[in-house]
Design a protein that fits this description.
By secondary structure, the chain is α/β, with parallel strands linked by helices. It is built from ten helices and 18 strands. It has helices at about 1-30, 65-75, 95-100, 110-120, 135-140, 195-200, 200-205, 215-225, 255, 345-365, and strands at about 35-40, 50, 55, 80-85, 125, 150, 155, 165-175, 180-190, 210, 230-235, 265, 275, 285, 290, 295-300, 305-315, 320-330. Strands 8, 9, 11, 12, 13, 14, 15 and 16 form an eight-stranded mixed beta sheet that branches. The protein starts with a helix and ends with a helix. Bound molecules: zinc ion. The site of zinc ion has 6 residues, from loops. Zinc ion (ZN) binds near residues 87, 127, 128 and 129.
Length: about 375
């Protein structure tokens, strides 16, 4: 009797084993979201892998190369966001030519913003060098940017309000590990060094003033949380140092990582690479995982030499989306000898080649 019953009892097990185990697997992964955050920083108008001073190809620089890494990094994951951390308009002859010779008031979008639009950046930060050509030029240029252009610590003197959009809450549909869709509210805020008031005194005095980065963070981050931000990402155009805090520090990243509400920091301004060997003695830093004070931080060098990548694992704890794990790394476009490691994004090159060629021709005409 007992023996006869065994095959009968096994029938439902055999029938339902596969779907049941799939269901268990799905339940374990339900609500775990992998979110990748990509950073370019301090591009300084390096759109093309070209050295305008030596009039030759330079494969250590150029967004047309970084773009290929952006495409690869996006293709590896289900959910990603792309940001620029500022200092993108000035720093090479192309930037100079456009601002000082040709101008951009001809109904044309600045090629840097045309490139950002084409690559689908989710938001960008203003860096200190964006002020070098004056506010009029900057305001005309950023009109061409299709994404939010952020800074939270530069204020209008006249209005006593942020001069730019201080932060944005991006609503993004993401897919968790089991394939279920969720809408995440991703808060993004921008900062830059207060030293702009010294460096660009002639352009800025009487028009704007700069608040200490940490003070602006204290002012706006609670507002972002009140508006329902599930996560907060800082586009921090500022460097990394654990020197004792002073409000006028040019390098505020270390102190931004101490805000419990900030989940990831995209650093810049100092053209360094984080994680990287120059930061090995930094306090409370995990160089293997790219964490400072247990928060993922990335700094992707300069001129498009690297792409910054932060990978977050997000899950719900007590009903709130929470970062369970974060790591950061950077990927280079060339090896240490300047040999290219990636192909040129030809589509992007076609989009900006006109101004590149204009700059090359202008330099040639000058006989430089
Ligand atoms: Zn800078």
């Amino acid at each position: 009797m007992f023996l006869k019953k065994i095959p009968f009892l096994l029938i439902p097990l055999i029938l339902f084993y596969t779907p049941f185990s799939r269901h268990v697997y799905a339940a374990e992964n339900q609500g775990i979201i992998d979110l990748r955050i990509l950073e370019t920083t301090d591009l300084h108008s390096s759109l093309v892998n070209y050295d305008y001073y030596q009039t030759k190809v330079d494969n250590r620089i150029g967004l047309v190369k970084t773009a290929t890494l952006i495409h690869q990094a996006r293709n590896e994951v289900k959910n990603s966001l792309l940001f620029d951390d500022g200092d993108h308009l000035k720093g090479n002859p192309l930037g100079e030519y456009l601002a000082r010779i040709r101008g951009i008031n001809h109904g044309k979008t600045h090629p840097v913003y045309r490139a950002f639009n084409s690559l689908g950046y989710d938001a960008i930060a203003i860096g200190n060098h964006e002020f070098n050509y004056g506010l009029k030029f900057l305001n005309a240029a950023i009109k061409g940017a299709n994404m939010p252009v952020l800074n939270a610590n530069v204020f209008s003197v006249k209005k006593n309000k942020p001069y730019f959009t201080p932060y944005i809450i991006l609503k993004r549909q993401v897919v968790d590990q089991s394939g279920t869709k969720h809408t995440l509210k991703i808060g993004v805020i921008g900062f830059m060094p207060t030293q702009i008031m010294k460096w660009d005194k002639a352009n800025l005095e009487g028009k704007v003033y700069a608040k200490p980065i940490i003070d602006a963070a204290k002012e706006f981050i609670p507002m972002m949380k009140a508006k329902g931000a599930d996560l907060i990402i800082a586009l921090a155009h500022t460097g990394i140092s654990s020197e004792p805090y002073n409000s006028e520090t040019e390098n505020a990243v270390y102190y931004l990582t101490k805000f419990p509400e900030i989940d990831a920091v995209l650093a810049g301004h100092s053209h360094s690479v984080f994680p990287g060997p120059i930061f090995q003695n930094l306090a409370n830093t995990n160089m293997t995982k790219g964490l400072i004070n247990n928060k993922p931080v990335v700094m992707a060098g300069s001129f498009g030499s690297r792409l910054g990548i932060i990978d977050l694992k997000i899950g719900k704890i007590a009903g709130k989306w929470t970062v369970l794990q974060g790591t950061s790394t950077t990927k280079a476009i060339s090896d240490e000898n300047g040999r290219s490691l990636v192909k040129t994004d030809k589509r992007l090159f076609r989009i900006i080649k006109f101004e590149h060629q204009e700059t090359v021709d202008f330099i040639r005409k000058l006989g430089l």
